[in-house]
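Is this the right way to post structure tokens for a design question? Let me know if I should format differently. Anyway, here goes:
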């Protein structure tokens, strides 16, 4: 194991690649703040893109095509997306705290990363996790899949209501 690590350090040094295991001094707070800013930017871009492509491809109802983009409706859409995202982060955090409480993961950042990866069904990160808790981890993936689907259904239903209210006046 040491030889591999040493060889990897030599390869990284010769290619001027930073060691991914070295501490970069980025705090959890800085990571979370950066993530929140990126999420907000992503939601705004996505919301604008959805409105734009729907209009561009004439996928709206005839009544909607005649109307201009409503800032209130767009603001509600962005707010709803951010709120749903916050719910998912809270749910991920519950599992992360549980993983720390049982001693499966010692620090909050890796526990949060493990939980988010599992919840979003990306697969489990490659670090040791106790076998006797792997069913909980697997069920977190199922719960995450269902909660994301539920959020999608609610989001579409609520945004449809907002758009219909705009038409009906």
């Amino acid at each position: 194991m040491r030889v591999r690590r040493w060889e990897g350090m030599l390869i990284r040094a010769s290619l001027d690649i930073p060691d991914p295991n070295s501490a970069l001094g980025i705090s959890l707070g800085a990571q979370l703040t950066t993530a929140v800013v990126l999420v907000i930017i992503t939601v705004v871009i996505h919301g604008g893109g959805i409105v734009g492509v729907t209009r561009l491809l004439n996928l709206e109802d005839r009544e909607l095509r005649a109307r201009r983009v409503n800032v209130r409706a767009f603001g509600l859409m962005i707010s709803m997306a951010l709120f749903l995202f916050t719910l998912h982060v809270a749910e991920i955090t519950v599992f992360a705290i549980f993983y720390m409480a049982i001693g499966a993961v010692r620090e909050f950042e890796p526990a949060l990363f493990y939980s988010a990866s599992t919840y979003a069904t990306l697969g489990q990160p490659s670090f040791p996790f106790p076998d006797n808790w792997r069913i909980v981890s697997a069920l977190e993936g199922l719960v995450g899949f269902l909660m994301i689907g539920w959020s999608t259904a609610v989001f579409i239903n609520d945004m449809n209501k907002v758009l219909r209210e705009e038409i009906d006046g």
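Format looks fine. Someone answered above. Worth noting: Helices lie at 2-15, 28-56, 62-65, 71-101, 108-119, 134-168. Residues 1-23 have pLDDT under 50 and may be disordered.
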